[in-house]
Amino acid sequence: MRIDGLTELIVHVGFPTHTFRSPLIYNPYFESIGANVVVVPMACRPEPYPVLLRSVFALDNVRGALITMPHKVRTVELLDVRSPAVEVAGACNAVRRLPDGRLEGDLFDGEGFVRGLTRKGVVLSGARALVVGCGGVGSAIAAALAAAGVADLVVSDVVPAAAQRLAERLQRHFSRTQARSGPADAIDRDLVVNATPLGMHEDDPLPLDISRLRPGTMVGDVVLHTDLTPLLRHAQARGCRVQVGADMLYEQIPAYLEFFGLPSTTPEHLRALSGLEPSVAAMHEEGV
What we know:
Elements (H helix, E strand, L loop, with lengths): L7 E7 L7 H12 L3 E7 L5 H8 L5 E6 L4 H5 L4 E2 L1 H6 L4 E4 L5 E4 L2 H11 L8 E5 L3 H12 L4 E5 L3 H14 L4 E4 L9 E4 L23 E4 L8 H8 L3 E3 L1 H15 L7 H8 L5 H7 L2
Parallel strand pairs: 1-2, 1-3, 4-6, 7-8, 7-10, 8-9, 10-11, 11-12
Antiparallel strand pairs: 3-5, 5-6
Helix pairs in contact: 1-10, 5-6, 5-9, 9-10
């Protein structure tokens, strides 16, 4: 890859950076299309991060920033413009500079999940969904589902107050979706999402009662340590369709490219160019 005086930068900011895989995915793609853009890891500890974020956007050749742990939450207060997904989830993983100099942030975890569903032919408009787990990823997925037109959305968490707060934020930003907190009951749901860590280990309890899953229900998981988590294996055995966690990660990269105003592509093309069939545990830690 040639780097010259016209090269544009996408800075990938987090700490530590040794698990970062994004440069191995984005940069081969940029080279393949002849784009003079490069993703550069930047290791920044929490204390200097607010100054760093503003400083890098003082550079004219910075196209944008990918934000990962531990800065996703802190970034929200540093933005001038926030997407509904950022407002609902309270986190941000992509920042760009607007023509007037303001910083705009978005969050693509949920967008990646929804794109994966859509490419599998799942119709979300008017659907009934359940999201189990109301942390950052679960909140982002819930916001993306509401934006996609899900009609009835139940959010569930082991901390009921967290689910209630998420439901209230969803109602404020997506009034056309009936969002409410409730138990992790899949009985009448068209779509069920596990957004908890349960499934990272084979002996983890299941996040919901699989006997309540109906055949044909779409079941998605965000856990990345295996292709098929115990939940997804049980769901398949009951005649359900499934989406694995790694799909969410690769599906969100085209959304990032579009956010930064760059030519987009398909997840399959990115997988082939990178040569990675990811160390998904590392990608999970990094947030791609």
